Amino acid sequence: MSEIIYRDAKVEDAEKIVAFYNYVGGETSYLSFEKDEYPMTVSEQEDEIRSLEGNQTNRMLLAMDGEEIAGIATIHSTHKIKARHDGELGIVVAKKYQKQGIGSRLIQMLIDWCKGNGVTTRISLDTRADNIPAVALYMKFGFEIEGCRKNSTLLNGVYCRATFYKCLRLKEKSR
Ligand SMILES: CC(C)(COP(=O)(O)OP(=O)(O)OC[C@H]1O[C@@H](n2cnc3c(N)ncnc32)[C@H](O)[C@@H]1OP(=O)(O)O)[C@@H](O)C(=O)NCCC(=O)NCCS
């Protein structure tokens, strides 16, 4: 493994990104999609990446091992004024690259960016309660459990234990 480079996704990466997601979907049951179930085509992914240029609240970061994608982290929020401060975080690191600090680095970079983008004040995400590495990772960065969504995942005919909704508040000013 060469040195991991962290950078924004480019339109030319679209094919690799779609292939990566379709592949890692089969490596873990913790993503919302299965192998080859990633919901975007290459051209939709290209459009999505174009929409990120100059976008204040949405970003896609890649961890690259040379030409190979090792991991991807995204933050995304709606354009709606009442909700655009609430970014949803997504992250996956390919199995062979896990436990080497890549996930931590990706999250740290997104949190730092959110703190400076002038809009995002809250980061949310869902994860399965039994996803030990992800729960440990989020806790390490100060995410808090806000609640649970019972039976929200159906895995091989069995409903999974509560899915927690965690949040990291970057600024407190609630009433
Ligand atoms: C969750 C995930 C992104 C972590 O990525 P990673 O690159 O392995 O994470 P890191 O190496 O930076 O480890 C970060 C922290 O997670 C925890 N962690 C990682 N792997 C762990 C494991 N197998 N068991 C327990 N804790 C673990 C540790 O607290 C670690 O921090 P530390 O090394 O300072 O103690 C990765 O496991 C993954 O992609 N899983 C499959 C997809 C997924 O579950 N995505 C999240 C869906 S909500």
Automatic annotation (TrEMBL):
InterPro entries: Acyl_CoA_acyltransferase, GNAT_dom, YpeA/RimI_acetyltransf. One of its GO terms (molecular function) is acyltransferase activity, transferring groups other than amino-acyl groups. Signal peptide: none annotated. Keywords: Acyltransferase, Transferase. PANTHER family: ACETYLTRANSFERASE, N-ACETYLTRANSFERASE DOMAIN-CONTAINING PROTEIN. It comes from Sellimonas catena. This is N-acetyltransferase. It comes from the Bacteria. Residues 4-165 form the N-acetyltransferase domain.
